Amino acid sequence: MFDRSTGLAVALVAALGMAMTEAQAAEIHTGGESGAYQSTFCPMLKSRIDGVGRTFDCKTSLGSSENLRRIARDPEDFGYAQLDVFALESGRFGGRNTFRSVRTDDARECVFAVTANRNLTNYGQIAVNSDVLKFILPPRSSGSASTFEFLSSIDPTGLGRARRVSHASDTDEAIRRTIRDGQAVTFFVQFPDPSNKRFQMIRRLGGHLVPVVDGVILDQEVNGTPVYFAQETQITQHRWMRAGKHVVTACTPLVLFTGNPNRITAPDVRLAQRRLISSLRALRSGDLVPQDSVFEQLYRRTRSASTRAREHFLRVSRNARLRARP
What pTM value is reported for the model? Predict the structure, then answer.
């Protein structure tokens, strides 16, 4: 009986068979040692492509931005990034032709805005008041800070007017400082795991989540792929006789990318890289996520927001912008 995994292995052997055996191990650039890129996604990718002519090692990094810089230098490597960060920063490392997006359909990370100000209930209100609000963000090197930069760049008359922006030592500290301030806002990006203690902390400290849904945000694309999707995400766990809490917000795909094969000088390695890219693209959505893992469960639980919910949040955000006009 023909097994799909066996078929992939055969295809990858053919793809990489011409690569020089003496070549050094290529690397898959991830993120922090305890992060999901390194601990969950990379091992699955490595298990699919190891032992078929070349060895790939999972390599920790500071995250999406550093991964782009590394692959700009070594086009045979692979890396993970948030798609919004990929869209923002690929141009800084030689342009989008420097890279090749391999997959964007295995998982999504979601953008969460937190504040203690109960008068802020939608993204449009944050955008039109950004010139007077204080923003306390995760570290400058974080994907969350890059997401805020990307949102600011696509919304110059809204979030792009933010001037009072500072950075905390980590995401949890940014949340604590924001809620203590009472009027500040923070943005962070993560997988919407209801078991994550961060959501419990927000509720315990008196903060609340503001839906990050707006027409400017949902209109963004990279090579025809939407940068953000309006998603219904679960943020608290179900309890007996009580449903878990959900929030609708913008989520950005996790992108697996590599260098443009045209930048590889050796013809046999260049051809092998192209075949490897094609083989990985042929996998089904979710094939590079461990079955029965928390991320596979999140993939199933997090779903596209209904048209009604999506239009509701687009409307309230648009109305907030219209009311702020002179």
Answer: 0.85
